[in-house]
Amino acid sequence: MSTKTIKERLNNLLADDFNKKPNGTIPVYREHRIFTNRNIKFSRIQALGFDMDYTLAQYRQDELDQLVQRLALSQMINEKGYPEEILSIPYKGNFAIRGLILDTELGNVLKMDKFRYVSLAYHGLKPLNSDTKVELYNIIRINLSSQRFQPVDTLFELLETYLYAALIDDLERIGKDVDFKGLYTDLRSSIDACHSNGSLKKEIMANPDRYFHDDPMLIPTLHQFKKVGKRLFVLTNSEPHYTDFVLSHLFRKANPFFHGWRSCFDIVGTSACKPRFFTEGTPVNVIEKKDSFFFSGGNFEYLANQLQIKPDRVLYVGDHIYGDILKSKQQSTWRTCIIVPELNDQIKADEETKPYLKSLLKNDSRHKQLNMELNWRRTQMQDLHQFKETEADELDLAGLQLIDERITTLNRQLEDNHKELSKLLFESRELRRQISSSFNPYWGRLFKTGGQLSMFAEQIRDNACIYTSSVSNFSYYGNHSYLSSMMIPMPHEKSLYPVGDLNFDVSMENTPVYPVEEEKV
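^ thats the sequence. predicted structure below, dont judge the formating
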């Protein structure tokens, strides 16, 4: 949400005049923006496809996660023989972020940068110290294709990540030997059972208002696409009956734009089994053809035959970096957009931390200058000592004393430099704490780590043509909009982008196991 008040924004809108805009530009607030990795001309897009869960339908994360936690832990007790004490594990909605990696062999949770370097790590809910982290992960390269490492790609997997860490913490606290791989398998299968046995969807369908956000701009946004002649389709892994229910809930107030979801979407594909859908797929079952072509199963080729549109004229919008974006990118020329609901909180935190960032940049500049001064003075002292030793026979007493005086002066300057450096390092550490505390209290920034792009950010940059926080943000862009990407600087151009050199993340070694609530964003 913007830092401006509603009244300020209303006054700005009322006073708006296109002729007063510099170069005729019309502003879009950052939380409504679509960010571009690869240029897209909207007028060339003839069809838009959407995933359903966490794309068209935005869940209330805390409500859904608490429901899944209750059902999954009960499943582990009843079916896997875990102690009933695990039901007392408190819900912590702010532990996990997307882009983490679970090490199911050692029971650790990892955050990696774009080079696959482990920057932060936890065992259970306790941070690993730097020496242990380096010994375990930074000597050999991690193979992410191994079954040992499980990526946290979706918002559904955030709770799974927390429960895995919390269960390790809880079981080790009472002195049990934990089979980390077995625990992950039991937890994964218990959560899957909540989906497959219908218990999770039954509770959601009984009270949809509790579990879904209402987005008043979703329906007008879809109508905006339809009125300029674009074909719309849904491609979801959810079953037909649940898809019908969720879409009906989203379109319950669709008048006067639509009479229901069938008048909006030309094609709805369910039980898609993505990412398998983009290769061999599964057998097709056509459910209805009347108003909307409604089917289950199938594969990419089947859907392409129904669309009859060149693949590079299709924009597919989803939230799963692997199942929706990466695999569709690998197997087709579809253009891609990833929905990142967390983006709004990141933007808000960016705004809040601007003063700290400005100070950190200033400290970083002075730090570099101080290092230059220290190196220069150390070198000069060495040169003076060497000159004094080698030329002693040629120097008179006055000359030797001048060298001693200069060395004394350099020592004093070095002492002053070291005092300033200590103060600077302490201030920078506190500034990083301030910045990190505005983001996730365990993992810091979603898109950065250790001064580099996080692995999650790099995946988005490499595989998603565009990204935004919500489907309804498309309503701020017309059919003739042209989204152009920014140039990515080479290292020799980094002086134009000094922020990229900074380490924003505070060390997690001294972070409490349960950060205080005031640190939540």
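The mean pLDDT is 88.
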